[in-house]
Specification:
By secondary structure, this protein is mainly α. The chain has 2 domains: 102 residues, Arc Repressor Mutant, subunit A, CATH 1.10.10; 107 residues. It contains 9 helices and 3 strands; from the N terminus they run αβααββαααααα. 21% of the residues are buried.
Length: 229
């Protein structure tokens, strides 16, 4: 089932779910969010979290509860989750909007209220206006290319000189409120990591070789040196 509506309506659905399913609902949903945030970007290929990783998280806090029924309800009845991958030995899920879900949980538990500090509200506005997920997607696309052409390099330089200062400034400011912006901080860090990867790739392009060619040349040089010895 696909839901196309606003962030606030999604938060209302989250709170409705928590009202209906009580402590079990809070523990399962909160744990799923925490697992998703803690998962490094390298292991999020199939989704935000796996059923297995959620079970491990629940057991680590002393909860021996099978969350499969609640996950199905979150997916089919509330549109909060999407099943992104399923095989004989693993199932993965993705949050429709993990930031909205996390905010709804925090508001429901009284950790934050709707009338945020103006500085916090401004940081959220800046983060969303930056379109960080779109920016990260572009950098990942550049990183995956075997070679970068002149257009790619021009696009990357535009990102570096137009966006990365904003990313760094926003990241430094959000670190002051780390408990509130855990996921945003992770995404901004990913942007800088992939930008660093692409910059290294461009260094290879500038001297006429790709990173793979450079690695092969280095490996051959080591082999040649070993033969001389």
């Amino acid at each position: 089932m696909t839901y196309i509506d606003s962030r606030e309506l999604l938060k209302l659905r989250v709170k409705d779910f928590l009202d209906k399913y009580g402590d079990k609902g809070i523990v399962v949903l909160k744990s799923a969010v925490e697992v998703s945030i803690n998962n490094g970007f390298r292991i999020k290929r199939f989704g935000d979290f796996s059923y297995k990783s959620l079970i491990i998280k629940l057991r680590s806090i002393g909860i021996n509860y099978n969350p499969s029924n609640l996950l199905r309800i979150l997916e089919r009845n509330y549109g909060i989750l999407e099943k992104t991958f399923s095989s004989s030995n693993q199932t993965w899920y993705r949050f429709v909007d993990i930031d909205a879900v996390r905010e709804a949980i925090q508001e429901y538990m009284g950790i934050i209220n709707n009338s945020d500090d103006p500085d916090i509200r401004l940081l959220r506005i800046k983060y969303r206006s930056l379109q960080p997920n779109k920016l990260l997607s572009v950098l990942k696309s550049l990183y995956r290319k075997p070679r970068l052409n002149k257009y790619d390099i021009g696009l990357f330089r535009e990102i570096v000189f137009k966006d990365l200062d904003l990313v760094t400034d926003l990241l430094n400011r959000m670190l002051r409120y780390e408990d509130l912006f855990t996921n945003e901080i992770r995404v901004l860090n990913e942007i800088l990591v992939y930008a660093d990867y692409v910059a290294s790739k461009i260094a290879g392009v500038d001297i006429g070789i790709s990173l793979e060619d450079e690695h092969i040349q280095y490996k051959n040089a080591i082999i040649g040196r070993e033969k001389e010895l």
